[in-house]
Amino acid sequence: MKIMKKVFSAVLCGAMALTLAACGSSNETTEATSSVTLMSENDLLTLDSSQATDGTALQVIQAFTDGLYGYAEDGTLTEDLAETVMISEDSLTYTITLREAYWSNGTQVTADDFVYAWKRLITEGSEYAYLLGSTGFKLKNADAIMDDGADIDTLGITAQDDSTLVLELESPCSYIEALMAFPTFFPLNQEFVESCGDQYGTTAENLIGCGAFTLTTYETSNKVVLTKNADYYDADEVTVDEVTINLAQDQSAAALQFDSGELDYCIITSALVDTYSEKDTYSTINNGFLWYLYVNFENEYLANENIRKGLSAAIDRVDLCDNILKDGSSPTTGFVPAELCTNSDGQDFAEACGDLLAEYEVDYNMEKAQEYIDAGLAELGVDSISISMLYGTDEGVDTVATYLEQAFNSLDGVEFSLSATQKESRIEKQQDGEFELSLTRWGPDYADSSTYLDLLGSDQIGNYNYGSYSNADYDELVLAARTETDTEAREQLLMDANALATEECAVISIFCQGQAVLTSSRMTGLIHNACGTPYIYKYIKVSE
């Protein structure tokens, strides 16, 4: 058996410390307190870890509850509730000893809390339940339970005793530590959850935690307040007394509040970049979201490879990022974006793949783009084609949609139009195949290229191939990678899959989203992750 005492994971991507701060006051009768106020563009609908899917909910859950793994002060992965982890020689059995920790209602965190939480993902129909199976943990019998109705009690997670958790996998999972740090897989106290019924996760009173903070205020569409947990096992590492997150806040209004000192951290729009870009408080971060076009292969025109290649080659990704978005967004070079993960030799996965768009001549080149379109029209036996693109007007990509409209309509023989809707409707139409092109994004749940490559291919691979891309060679590469135990061989299989998807324009990748942010100089220690939980509050420090 091999024992992991500390993991400084190379698979964690884009972790960085941002600076901001606030200070409290003190006198002879009152202890000094410190607090910070941050903004979130999004509202919170639930803090039930089984149902939460948005970044804001995940980072709040991570603040008041610990998982088996979490993040060290330098942003690397490390054990949290897992005190020791023993791995069998075949990497299929993980025996995890839990450290002594307590829920905020005074009961001890036990191995059964993890068993209950993970089984509940399946029984409650969580969107992230699929990560228990072959596209995630590869937990024993997870696919059989979810796909074939096998007994939930056969799931490969058991409590050997109160402090010992055993995980059984069907094949090795090289990124398992990152998954164990994802809030979806944090523990739940069964007695408390069931006492709340369907109200669990909807108010501060209907939540308990075991993390660095306790949730003291939860007001939908207003704010969340987190207060330091004095009983936390690692309380000495937590120096900030209170963190307030303003919810569903407009970026322009947030910038004004930042200027007046009411906010310590905020995100700004591309329109405000020129105003703040020369200030010390301005910086950009890698948001981690890849924006791309789903291509509906059921459409006669888009099923033609030359048409897809022509559209891809008509997009000036560098100009879009540098002169339109201006927020740190970066052009793609393939389907798997940069800064997601590294290979075993320490090289960035996307960098190791090379500039695939350039290699397969589907990067920006209008002359080449027109050649592709002309060839496609000839193959289709038509003089022109009409294509529409679905996008959400509430997703902050209106300028991107307009940019693509101008680019595609500059191609002779292409009549391109926009189909504007809201995000919820876009997703529904995507799932139902009611689109031609769809401007969409994917945020990585864990730091491994499979989080993107599993989006394509047959039903054996996953449920997100909304464009119905079909290639037996692609399926073979991705499925082989799932069971390959040799690390370098697995990496090569995934690199080949990335190359094939890019060469065929299975999707048309555009940019990896950045964010322009303003950060107060009064505080340090806010960790940002490009994948997984966006922000970690535990190590925020304030200056006096």
Protein model, in words:
- With 544 residues, the chain is of the alpha+beta class.
- The N terminus is likely disordered.
In short:
28% of the residues lie in helices and 23% in strands. The chain has 544 residues and is α+β, with helices and mostly antiparallel strands.
Give the secondary structure arrangement, pairings included.
Elements: E1 2-4, E2 16-19, E3 35-39, H1 55-64, E4 69-71, E5 77-79, E6 82-87, E7 93-98, H2 111-123, H3 142-148, E8 157-161, E9 164-168, H4 176-180, H5 190-196, E10 213-219, E11 223-228, E12 242-246, H6 251-259, E13 265-268, H7 273-276, E14 282-295, H8 305-313, H9 317-325, E15 330-331, H10 349-353, H11 356-359, H12 366-380, E16 385-392, H13 398-409, E17 414-421, H14 423-431, E18 437-442, H15 450-453, H16 472-483, H17 487-503, E19 507-519, E20 523-528, E21 535-536, E22 541-542
Parallel strand pairs: 3-12, 16-17, 16-18
Antiparallel strand pairs: 1-6, 2-20, 4-5, 6-7, 7-9, 8-9, 10-11, 11-12, 13-19, 14-18, 14-19, 15-19, 20-21, 20-22
Helix pairs in contact: 8-12, 16-17
